[in-house]
Amino acid sequence: MAARIRVGVIGLTHDHIWSNLENLGKIDGAEIVAAAEPDAALRERFAARYGKPTFDDYDAILDKKHDLQAVFVFGDNRESAAWAARACTLGLHAMIEKPMAADLAGADELSAAGARHGTHVMVNWPHNWNAKLRHAYRLTSDGAIGDVFKLRYSGGHAGPREIGCSPIFCDWLYDADRNGVGALVDQGGYSATVCRWFLGRPSRVMAMGGRLTKEADSDLDNAVILLRYPNAIAVAETSWSWVGGLPTAGPVVYGVEGTLVAHGARDAAGVTMIKRGEKEPTIVEAPPLLEGERNAPEYFISRIREGKPIEGLVSARVSRDAQEILEAAAESIATGQEVSFPLDGHLPGI
Q1: Are strands 30-36 and 54-55 parallel, antiparallel or unpaired?
Q2: Backbone phi, psi, residue 94, to 5°
Q3: What is the secondary structure of 265-290 as a DSSP string?
Q4: What CA–CA distance (Å, rounded) separates 211 from 173?
Q5: Dihedral Cα 285, 132, 234, 206, nearest 10 deg
Q6: CA 243, 135, 152: angle at the middle one, nearest 5?
Q7: CA 135 to mean position of chain CA atoms
Q8: What share of the chain is helix, strand, coil (3-state, %, to 5)?
Q9: Are residues 336 and 191 in the same domain?
Q10: pLDDT, tens digit (0-9, with 9 covering 90-100), for 228-248
Q11: pTM of this structure
Q12: 348 domain residue, yes or no
């Protein structure tokens, strides 16, 4: 019989919470215990769906009487990082919805809290559950296209309001303190995590961005980031203006022996690849994700039960470094200058 894992929920304003709770409810032995959320309407929605207690104060969910092993944290980007870090100090495993934080300081605080207290910290990036992306990473790592010299990833949508995000979700997505730098933080992390996962930590970053289409809002709505590695360049694009969801994800990975394209989750194709000497590309079907890693709650709970670390794109390490890329990009956009790594200026005392 699977070990019982009791999960409390901190925050319900991130719209992604509901699909993750549905997946959590399907896991044998995983129990949704209670939720804390200041908004009354969201508390009522949770109670009606799950019949569990709710609280209007985040502190209440962390009371020892609930006997939790883990928390889901789905508030705004700034408060989520802080509350996930606090949960870690109490010995609780934390799954936080992407991105890791509103800024690098918050990501570092959360990463350090998990490391100090020996708890799992997982950042749910939805594109991690696209089998085609995972297979593209496996092919690249196995040398299918040789040494990689360039990677391009485009991530974005038409904008939070335009795609139907709830009003309370939009309230903080368009708040620079609670979200971070607009589309750069909200959607740019998809690109930044892929670049970091495939190529590692860059040595230099340069970016351009601004408010190109959203005249009613003051947020940055489009950005392009260039990342320099010792022997590679990456191009990370993000937008709150793209109509129709095209292109569908990626990445496009260029190697000295070939090129591959990972198709989006809604595309029929898997991974398109062409190698040196071939005249036509071939479609490589991506194997389905294994049980225990088909979605975020399933992976999070399985890692806790098995005592295994959170790995890959959703790990604290990759997510923290992606946050560093976004922070460097914001600095580059503001100054018009290239930014070198590592970014140490945010550290206490500097």
Answers
A1: parallel
A2: -130, 130
A3: TTSS--EEEEETT-SS-EEEPPPPPP
A4: 15
A5: 160
A6: 45
A7: 18
A8: 35, 25, 40
A9: yes
A10: 999 999 999 999 999 877 666
A11: 0.95
A12: no
| Six-digit token string for 290 | 């294994």
Give yes or no: residues 132 and 173 share one domain.
Answer: yes
The token pair at 45 is 């929605």
Q: What's the Cα-to-Cα distance from 308 to each of 118, 290, 311, rounded to whole Å? A: 12, 16, 9
pLDDT in tens, 142-182: 999 999 999 999 989 999 999 999 999 999 999 999 999 99
For residues 67-102, b (16+ Cβ closer than 10 Å) or e, as one string? Answer: ebbbbbbbbbbbbbbbbbbbbbeeebbbbbbbbbbb
Angle (nearest 5°) at CA 158 between 101 and 239: 50
- Of the candidates 252, 294, 77, 296, which has an alpha carbon nearest to the alpha carbon of residue 151? 252
CA distance linking residue 290 with residue 57, whole number of Å: 37
DSSP single-letter state for residue 66: G
Q: Which long-range contacts (CB under 8 A, 24 or more apart) does 277-282 make?
A: none
Domain shared by 120 and 136, yes or no: no
CA distance 201 to 178: 26
Domain tally, the chain: 2
Q: Within a domain: residue 149?
A: yes
State which residues form the domain around 100: 5-126+292-309
Residue 305 lies in a domain: yes
Position 151: which residue type?
L
Nearest Cα neighbor of 195 from 149, 162, 153, 164 is: 153
Check residue 111 and report its DSSP letter. H
Q: Report the run of H or E that residue 232 belongs to, with start and end.
A: strand 232-239
